[in-house]
Write a structure and sequence with these properties.
Bound molecules: aspartic acid
Strand order of the largest sheet: 4-1-5-6-7-8-11-12
Radius of gyration: 21 Å
Shape: elongated
CATH superfamily of the largest domain: L-asparaginase, N-terminal domain
CATH topology of the largest domain: Rossmann fold
Distance between the termini: 43 Å
Largest sheet: 8 strands, mixed
Structural class: alpha/beta
CATH architecture of the largest domain: 3-Layer(aba) Sandwich
Oligomer: single chain
């Protein structure tokens, strides 16, 4: 029996395995399997053994929805005991959402789940996908970081801290609030102090009992109460993407009333405040324009990305959690997605909770 670690490669879709057609790039069934089968690197002794599982249908990640997050998490749970790690080959457009969702759908995860993809299809001679595949498979088998991460452009980033920041540069993902968990160069440097510890118990996939309606809304100058009212009316939850430190218009009472009415019983819509900024944290008590949101009942999302907040909101509501508990749990660190700050007291402009420094280089 081989002693090499075993990695399951789940092909979900994305540019990496796409082929150009007259109507644009589309995933091509069979292409990735043929390509990987012809990669001598994947057969080398120092590589883990791998098996490819192809999801049907293969998707451009722009076509994915919460059912697809669930499909991937169920696939991982089904094969969990058979492998030492998982690589999810996925499109870049919504990779940060899927990575975030998986981190909430798989509590108790004790093995690496690494999402990767590429900016250029493997059909392109300069594709970034080849190295991503090799390194993601290598890391999933040989570097036991028990988290959902994204491997892209020589860095391993926590999935629920990642955002797609470029659609051309190979450096396509970044985390504004957490340095990479590992940097991959001539050597592999793991930032152990940032990585989560293996959980004590077994994998406990989240059981979903309903399909809540959640949305995100990036506020903009000119937004008014009527727009909010119409948008929020059918929703169970909303991620409000605000300016800067978590600020929004405060002079338009109809805007604030629309939020307050949605949040109050009987509607009980959960509204989370996340910043439009790529880095930093929401502090609703710093400016008057944030304080009005706090008074309307908006829940601070602290330093969560909107992607993490949306998927966390979806998962909590889908698991049947009552709205009041969702508001509390949103502010708890479930999978490394935020640094909690339960005080919520007005405080002087002192340094906030010490946080691992973000990485803006490269
Ligand atoms: N539209 C593609 C996708 O997200 C883009 C990519 O993979 O880079 O599936």
């Amino acid at each position: 029996m081989s002693q090499r670690p075993r990695v399951c490669v789940l092909h979900v879709g994305g540019t990496i395995g796409m082929v150009a057609h007259a109507d644009g790039y589309r995933p091509q069934p069979g292409f990735l399997a043929d390509y990987m089968g012809a990669m001598p690197e994947l057969l080398r002794e120092e590589m883990p053994e791998h098996e490819l599982v192809v999801l049907d249908p293969l998707l451009d990640s722009s076509d994915m929805d919460p059912d697809d997050w669930l499909r991937i998490s169920e696939e991982i749970a089904r094969h969990y005991d058979d492998y030492d790690g998982f690589v999810v080959v996925h499109g870049t457009d919504t990779m940060a959402y899927t990575a975030s969702a998986l981190s909430f759908l798989l509590p108790g995860l004790g093995k690496p789940v690494i999402l990767t993809g590429s900016q250029l299809s493997l059909t392109d001679v300069r594709s970034d996908g080849r190295e991503h595949l090799i390194t993601a498979i290598y890391l999933a088998g040989s570097v036991p970081i028990p988290e959902v991460t994204i491997y892209f452009a020589a860095r391993l980033i926590r999935g629920n801290r990642a955002q797609k920041i470029h659609n051309q540069d190979f450096f396509a993902f970044n985390s504004g609030n957490l340095a990479p968990l590992a940097r991959i160069g001539a050597s592999i440097r793991v930032a152990h102090r940032l990585c989560r510890q293996p959980p004590p118990g077994p994998l406990r996939p989240l059981k979903l009992v309903r399909k809540p309606k959640v949305a995100s809304l990036r506020i903009f100058p000119g937004i008014d109460g009527e727009m909010i009212r119409r948008m929020v009316e059918p929703l169970d939850g909303l991620v409000l993407e605000t300016y800067g430190n978590g600020n929004a218009p405060s002079r338009d009472q109809s805007f604030l009333n629309a939020l307050a009415e949605a949040i109050a019983p009987p509607r009980d819509t959960v509204i989370i405040n996340c910043s439009q900024c790529h880095g930093g944290r929401v502090d609703q008590l710093r400016y008057g324009t944030g304080m009005t949101l706090a008074r309307a009942g908006v829940t601070s999302g602290y330093d969560m990305t909107p992607e993490a907040a949306l998927t966390k909101l979806y998962c909590l509501l889908a698991a049947g959690t009552p709205a009041a508990d969702v508001r509390a749990r949103i502010q708890e660190d479930l999978a490394g997605e935020l640094i909690a700050d339960p005080s919520q007291r007005p405080r002087p402009r002192a340094p906030e909770t010490a946080s691992p420094l973000a990485d803006h280089d490269a």
